[in-house]
Amino acid sequence: MVTERAAEAPGTGAPPARVRMIGVAIPIPDPYGALLQGKRASYGDPLAGAIPTHITLLPPTEVDGVELDAIEAHLLDIARKERPFHIRLRGSGTFRPVSPVVFVALGEGIDDCERLQALIASGPLARPLDFPFHPHVTIAHHLPDKVMDQAFMELATYSARFEVWGFSLYEHGEDGVWRPQRDYVFGVGGAGPRTEDDCPTES
User: Fold this and answer.
1) Which of 153, 48, 42, 38 minimizes the C-alpha distance to 94?
2) What is the pTM of this model?
3) CA 52 to CA 200: how far, in whole Å?
4) Where are the alpha helices (DSSP H) in the chain?
5) Which member of 53, 118, 155, 162 has the lowest number of beta carbons within 10 Å of its beta carbon?
6) What is the average per-residue pLDDT within 70-81?
7) In what order do the strands lie in the sheet with 101-108?
């Protein structure tokens, strides 16, 4: 189930629209995604089990359910014109003191992520951002400073490299869990890989 609420226009008599909470992100493939999600859980982050490991391209955004067809067509068009690229995760970073976040940083693929984010955040998904876009993988959020420091230090030497095949559309469920709804594969736009056989090896 997805987060939704009535959005009937006063006096129109129209049926209420379903307001969805969506996001768009690059999934981090296993074994890296599972490892980093496990690390996040080990720090006691309550969101660890609710958010798959990812690089955000569109932050949580409320949309009218009737807009989903246009949004999916928008994402499909972007994916068809893009090509795979590589991301290297390297070391840790933090947004403190501006925002209580510790993350795994990108050492390769930043320009590609920035281009992709700009394309996605246009048309039906155009919206102001609370912070400038900075691609990253969150590993600890709103935790005690001692725990945030631990996460920062433990992941300071972390490194992984993988090929990005595309991105996914996620919806926020009433149970608080973010779930992928559709994959958008570069050059194709259809269903994306989700099996261990498709996961590249670390280098």
Assistant:
1) 153
2) 0.84
3) 18
4) 32-42, 68-81, 110-120, 145-154
5) 118
6) 95
7) 137-141, 101-108, 85-94, 159-164
Q: Which residues contact 76 (CB under 8 A, 6 or more apart)?
A: 184, 189
pLDDT digits (tens, 9 = 90+) for 6-31: 444 444 444 445 889 999 999 999 99
| Cα-to-chain-centroid distance, residue 3 | 17
The label of the residue with tokens 């006691």 reads: 44
CB 29 within 8 A of CB 69: no
87 contacts: CB under 8 Å, gap ≥ 6 = 26, 55, 106, 108, 109, 112, 113, 161, 162, 163, 164
CB 200 within 8 A of CB 73: no
Residues with Cβ within 8 Å of 111's Cβ and at least 6 positions away in sequence, in order, are: none
